[in-house]
Model the fold of this input.
Amino acid sequence: EAGVVQSPRYKIIEKKQPVAFWCNPISGHNTLYWYRQNLGQGPELLIRYENEEAVDDSQLPKDRFSAERLKGVDSTLKIQPAELGDSAVYLCASSQAREETQYFGPGTRLLVL
Amino acid sequence: GENVEQHPSTLSVQEGDSAVIKCTYSDSASNYFPWYKQELGKRPQLIIDIRSNVGEKKDQRIAVTLNKTAKHFSLHITETQPEDSAVYFCAASLVGVRIEKLVFGQGTRLTINP
Done:
């Protein structure tokens, strides 16, 4: 079974530039999560989707961050404009409906200069 | 909301010895407690989890214990091996009619010395 796929794996941009991350969850997983992991910290949830619906986005900085999950499968997370403090690893995870076990992707390491 | 504290932040043990990592949580309603292992530059991977209806769970060299009254849970690794070196994260969540978000601890960097 293929795991959660994310791209790109690394991204270096200058501040004020836009950036987008892509996630393909495990086939059949209805729930998709985006986390941000700062250096030396645990992952922090940004947004959670149940199919196409964002059911928990309370931690998403909505002034600059946006996310979408069209057709309830792949998802993109966008930052516009990026700030220096956005440098982190952005992790995507997925789980089956009504199952608590989350499977993580390899993450996208973002560096904002 | 839930808050999870994890300690120690770093742990170094000799190969073959045991390692123990402890976490406390604040929300007494939380009932699902997974542990993730993250090797350098790689994805977090679930290694074991426990639900609040049991006090202990084992899987080969790994065990997790839960004390609901004290609101803490611990990861125990016995007969440690070099490949156990990684960062370990605990987490807590409420699982019921709906699944609430996982709240992670700050992580423990475990180093196994040969």
